[in-house]
């Protein structure tokens, strides 16, 4: 399924750029920055956004959101190799489509909103999920700016790292501390 989305999203990005331009997706992949610089920027962006997202989701206030995500991924019993594979497929496919094909047509911020909305993180019936979604809009927009300034490889790497961090953390039990457990001074 994940490999299928990689193939479908990549094909869609090729089709969109072939029809609407300004140039085919294949020509935009190298970007303006050196590949090793793009990887470095992507690792940094991904580590920051992935860690921040986990810090927020792991708070007691977001227990319902964390449990929602755990409910999706825990039954899969993913190993580290599977987490990395899923994250790479999502990073490559989704970034080629959203940052490579859609962003040049509708801009960074609309693309970020669309990306997060399609993932279901902007939910008018669940304001806690929407708070998390707001953070993800900022992350997605930063991937868009990275794409413009350095190249799409930076966004692919950042997306992949965010997914790896979150999926690996969702595999682990979370110890939440209640107010009653906090020692008084």
Protein architecture, described:
The protein has one domain (2-174). The chain is globular. It has 8 helices and no strands. The chain is mostly helical and 185 residues long. Helix 1 (2-20) packs parallel to helix 5 (80-106), helix 3 packs antiparallel against helix 7 and helix 7 packs antiparallel against helix 8.
Question: Which short descriptors sum up this protein?
Answer:
about 180 residues
Give a quick account of the main beta sheet: strands, pairing sense, barrel closure: none
Could you tell me the number of beta strands? 0
Q: What is the percent of helical residues?
A: over 70%
Mean pLDDT: 89
Fold blueprint:
Blueprint: H1 2-20, H2 25-28, H3 35-57, H4 63-73, H5 80-106, H6 108-118, H7 127-149, H8 152-170
């Amino acid at each position: 399924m994940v490999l299928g989305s990689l193939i479908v999203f990549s094909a869609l990005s090729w089709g969109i750029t072939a029809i609407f331009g300004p140039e085919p997706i294949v020509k935009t992949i190298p970007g303006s920055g050196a590949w090793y610089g793009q990887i470095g920027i992507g690792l940094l962006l991904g580590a920051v956004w992935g860690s921040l997202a986990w810090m927020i989701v792991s708070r007691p206030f977001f227990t319902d959101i964390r449990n929602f995500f755990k409910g999706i991924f825990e039954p899969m019993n993913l190993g580290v190799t599977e987490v990395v594979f899923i994250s790479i497929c999502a990073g490559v496919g989704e970034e080629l489509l959203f940052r490579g094909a859609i962003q040049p047509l509708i801009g960074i911020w609309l693309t970020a909103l669309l990306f997060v909305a399609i993932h279901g993180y902007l939910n008018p019936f669940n304001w806690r999920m929407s708070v998390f979604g707001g953070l993800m809009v900022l992350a997605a927009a930063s991937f868009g700016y990275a794409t413009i300034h350095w190249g799409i490889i930076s966004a692919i790497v950042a997306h992949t790292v965010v997914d790896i961090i979150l999926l690996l953390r969702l595999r682990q039990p979370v110890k939440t501390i209640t107010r009653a457990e906090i020692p008084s001074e």
